[in-house]
Amino acid sequence: MSLAIVHSRAQVGVDAPPVTVEAHLANGLPSMALVGLPETAVKESKDRVRSALLNAGFDFPARRITLNLAPADLPKDGGRFDLAIAMGILAASGQVPESALADLECLGELALSGALRPVQGVLPAALAARAAGRRLVVPRANAEEASLASGLEILAVDHLLELVAHCAGQTPLAPFASQGLLRQIAPYPDLAEVQGQAAAKRALLIAASGSHNLLFSGPPGTGKTLLASRLPGLLPALTESEALEVAAIHSVASHEPLRCWPQRPFRHPHHSASGPALVGGGSRPQPGEITLAHQGVLFLDELPEFDRKVLEVLREPLESGHIVIARARDKIRFPARFQLVAAMNPCPCGYLGDPSGRCRCSPEQIQRYRGKLSGPLLDRIDLHLTVAREATALQGTAGDGSNSATLAAVVAAARQRQIERQGCANAFLDLPGLRQHCRLDSEDACWLETACERLGLSLRAAHRVMKVARTLADLEGEPNIGRAHLAEALQYRPAAGA
Hints:
Strand content: 15-25%
Family: Belongs to the Mg-chelatase subunits D/I family. ComM subfamily.
Distance between the termini: 77 Å
Largest sheet: 5 strands, parallel
Pfam family, one: ChlI
Number of domains: 2
Organism: Pseudomonas mangrovi
GO molecular function: ATP binding; DNA binding; peptidase activity
Number of strands: 18
Protein name: ATP-dependent protease
Radius of gyration: 28 Å
CATH superfamily of the largest domain: P-loop containing nucleotide triphosphate hydrolases
CATH topology of the largest domain: Rossmann fold
């Protein structure tokens, strides 16, 4: 038969839309045409496929070959279509039975020898192939990653000849059996290693329980970074669907195999990061730090040292939980439901308010330094805490007995109450959910309104106070928000202009 069809998958953001590779052999001068909106790497596959077929001992048809990657309006890039193109040519020329390809989806880049090289974005393709009810053929280096999509039959291939022998019925391939190499969970740093800082540990407990954003402010050496790195160890374990979301993002973003799955990510970009590095971008849009921190923690140390324009791009994702990268040809939507933890010094030298009195910053310098952070961005941070210097105790730690395992159990119980009540963490409540689950009696509502007016808080800040108060009530197992919960929540909000 002179026409063959092979199924494959493209990569668009974190999605894997289906692509049908159609190979047609016609009479005429020998040539090969590739159509279907291919990018440069896909156009070069013609030469890779020709050499791979010849070096593997197959006959390359001396006919007019037309290869169509459908749908025609979907851009295709990368070497992921090499294997599908090669199998299409072999099936169209009668060297492989086409019926054996009907329930297969093929991904893989071909070396000139016919060996298969790994490609990016295999896990989203595996999830899509499972939903379509087909088997997936991938390079062996990608098989462990693809096996995260449970219930999918995977054929791991090292060379083109192996797949051809399987399709011809000569040497059938056994379904790939996962070795569990990606399911090795590494322990998070323990909060018990942090000396003192009881107030900061309390703030971490509240932030973890309700998925609230958190800002630490204090002199250098007070443990702000140390505290922030302990937050992932307090968060509840990822569900199966959340873990697959995280793994799919990292599959798209890196050639490196996934490690320590399933764990919440902790991203710590340097303050010199650009806007596209933080939110994603490029001519071929790739996920940025906020997407790589999806379902995890994004830690921004030395917050005022970031460019103000870079920080402002965080405002919409903090509210919506996703980022849309707009290009002339298309719009790519990346998930970005992350928990922001930031740290900063109180002044340029860092020692404002220190008992040593070493700060020499002028009021103008302090105002200019703090002015790098906009009010709308600070409004979106639920918990603001000043971290004071603790007494130096080099001989061991004078801890309060709290450790990550103990607090994680408290966080899990509080988060479970929220899931059963409203289906999400308190920080993600929308306005209808806020009105339904954060109700106040008339006296407490009037008290909170008066307090917000005196502090000069915006309506958004007032809503976030109510969400934090709801989390405090959940930590105590209380069904209703009380005055004490509101009072403690207000302590984490700075007055306007402070």
